[in-house]
Amino acid sequence: MLRTLVLEPLMHTLAILAQLAVAISVFYVWIFRFDTITSDFERFGYPLVFRNAVGVVKLVIATLLIVGFWSPAVIPGATLGMAALMIGAQWSHWRVSNPMAKRVPSAILLAACALILFDARGTIG
């Protein structure tokens, strides 16, 4: 009973907040902190076309996460895509031995994606 009355609504609310936070974070970083993105991708040794492609994909997925508030069916796919990109970010930071402080943001977004997916499990299928 406690699960139904308290835990499930709380989890759903946290997932909604996580969905919003992931989308806003991606928009903020890729629009207003693009200089940081540019220097990170240079440090990783990735070409400009790859950086631009990742940016477009992340912005599209962030948009889909916002659209998910009206069309929940897009949430699982968008979240899986964002999680994959965050795993790629973690790998990229690890590959160049970046300090933990550089790895934390993508790790937090990856954890948020896990929360969103856990909550969205009812929309799959």
What does this structure look like?
The protein is mainly α and 125 residues long. The protein has helices spanning 2-32, 34-44, 48-67, 75-95, 100-120. The protein has one domain. It contains 5 helices and no strands.
Count of domain modules: 1
Using DSSP, what is the number of strands? 0
Instruction: Please state roughly what percent of the residues sit in beta strands, choosing from under 5%, 5-15%, 15-25%, 25-35%, 35-45% or over 45%.
Output: under 5%
| Share of residues in helices | over 70%
The topology string of helices and strands comes to HHHHH
Instruction: Calculate the terminal CA-CA distance, rounded to whole Å.
Output: 27 Å
Secondary-structure-derived class: mainly alpha
Average per-residue pLDDT, rounded, comes to 93
What kind of sheet is the major sheet?
A: none
| Rg, alpha carbons | 16 Å
Number of helices: 5
**Uncertain residue ranges:** none
Which word captures the global form? elongated
